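User: Show me an example of a complex going from sequences to structure tokens.

Assistant: Sure. Here are the input components:
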Amino acid sequence: MADDDIILSELDDEELVLQMHDDLYDGLKEEIEEGVRILLDRGWAPYDVLTKALVAGMTIVGADFRDGILFVPEVLLAANAMKAGMAILKPLLAETGAPKVGKMVIGTVKGDIHDIGKNLVGMMMEGAGFEVVDLGINNPVEKYIEALEREEADILGMSALLTTTMPYMKVVIDTMKEKGMRDDFIVLVGGAPLNEEFGRAIGADAYCRDAAVAVQTAKDFMARKHNSLA
Amino acid sequence: MSDPLSRLLETRDWLLADGATGTNLFNMGLSSGEAPELWNTDQPENILALYRSAVAAGSDIFLTNSFGANAARLKLHGAEGRVRELNRIAAELGREVADAAGHAVVVAGSMGPTGEIMAPMGALTHEIAVEIFHEQAEGLKEGGADVLWVETISAAEEFRAAAEACQRAGMPWCGTMSFDTAGRTMMGVTSAQMAALVDRLAHPPIAFGANCGVGAADLLRTILGFVAAGPERPVIAKGNAGIPKYHDGHIHYDGTPDLMAEYAVLARDAGATIIGGCCGTMPEHLRAMRNALETRPRGPRPTLDEIAAKIGGFSSASDGTGEEAAGRERRGRRRG
């Protein structure tokens, strides 16, 4: 229906940003790429495109996922569209020295081979603009520590789907404490058998019920971190 | 030519399936991180013991130790070249136990998810998913499985791919999905949607239903959702023995044998024909379930309130069925 077609380049800035939020919601990758290019051509700073158009749009997606209106497939399509926009912005953000959203090291703990939840969190974190270093499955404590140091990460994400493997998260956190590096990182844990009480008991910063909560929690902690540095 | 499961279903109005595979194997010393399927060749006596324990507890059907024996999962252990062998042996060991039982016991070849996310959201295409499942199906068939048993699936696309693989192998099958996210599967499928999906398949399963998820009460709500859809084929209920709880450094499932017995009776009254357990369900739970199904009379279909009163409440207020999808207001129409 030609009458219904929206021509992105004919929208003013405010309209275009709102339309991009809708297009992210619908997981329209090419439309997001086009929108990002238009805003850049209009002289927008790459960081503003990232935060006002993309991250703000993904926040709406995350809220509706949390509220049970959207489910994983829709969120993954939105994250894919977000990533396509991000691919255009990434080199420009580096050039302009824009603040980074954050970097996360993520992996399932030693003994745990169940990775779909971890993969979802990784994809959604990338969709929210984070850099994600995926260590895969079955990670011993040394591997987490080495990656955190090598990558100069902000966040450690650990996942476990088995009741037999979740206690290993405590081993990792205790080792970080012994090395005096626990407070340098935000530690988020997740996985089907976990709960908030468990997260507290092992000394994590937060338990994240699902991938949307993980993204929101990561953003909150990063904001606090930036505030405390400022 | 009918298969052993269909024949059994003709003579009985309920069948007892088995309980947990993982929980039982961990109790036998499987270390976490190890692929349980490697025990088919490394510790076959433990797998035989697992199967025998289910049969001894009264299971009419037991699942083979092959849940993760597809190329996508075995690859994580560098064993992707052993799919055919590990599945064949899983079924052969099952055959040995079932044939020695002295009565009809069905060997169901377990096929779990690939663990990959399917296109267009993820990288796994339908064609490759069918190939992955088909390779596993052929191994189970070769080893003598009576039926294939696709379980713990979240995505409709993956369920369809598994159905096609069973068709390609020329095998009857059963299929269950895991409803663990506010009454839906992780990928958003409701019980009503699954019932509709099953009816549209070119090679429909003998029976379909739910396994795992969030505890016995949620699973029964899902069963009521299937039954409300007026299914043409038997419904399967395989719920967890309660919910895992963390106490002083160790974890246990809070479902007692008594609770699982209650769950089994409620599942039958709700309309399920094939009833079993999943994570945390041990032989003592199965014995209690069998005893309850044999001794307690059928009752009326339970309401949600009755289920909650007898075995505990639900993890979410709604399960996504019987309501209008709450959509977000859009600014304008997109080309489409």
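The lines above are the inputs; the final block is the predicted structure for all two components together. Chain A has a mean pLDDT of 90.
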